[in-house]
Amino acid sequence: MNKIKTLLGGIALSASLAGAALAAGVEVNASSTGLALQGYDPVAYFTEGAPTKGSYKITSVYEDTTYRFSSDANKATFDADPEAYLPKYGGYCAFGTAMGIKVDGDPTVWAIIDDELYLNLSTDIQERWNSDIPGYLEKAEGKWTEIEHEDPAVLLQ
């Protein structure tokens, strides 16, 4: 039980930090400038199998959020079907979503499950997530419909 309290405490702290960084709206975890995934290329997770920093010179804006790409080919792939490459839960931590809160997803702590990109807050949180992915996915899907449009800071009150 203490491990869970510690994990949730860390998530709560991140949520308060995440709330101040939102620009694109509460549905997407973006910086104050509207940059998603901290500038990582969303397509590269699928094509390179690794988080890859995008270039400020190669960008697309989708639903008021800016995405960067490591190549023109990745940008074209994204532009053809953006929904296929967007991280689940707006790029918020998948485990946090399952707990009913929104916290930063670290673009270097990720997994592709059933052709969907999921981020987690940290490797410790991802270990917890990995202990029951089907169960946490089910919880997260249910919680996301409740919290998608909520401000992260409000969820901590």
TrEMBL record:
It comes from the Bacteria. The keyword Plastid does not apply. InterPro entries: YHS_dom. Keywords: Signal. Residues 43-88 form the YHS domain. Pfam families: YHS. Transmembrane segments: none annotated. The keyword Transport does not apply. Residues 1-23 form the signal peptide. This is YHS domain-containing protein. It comes from Thalassovita mangrovi.
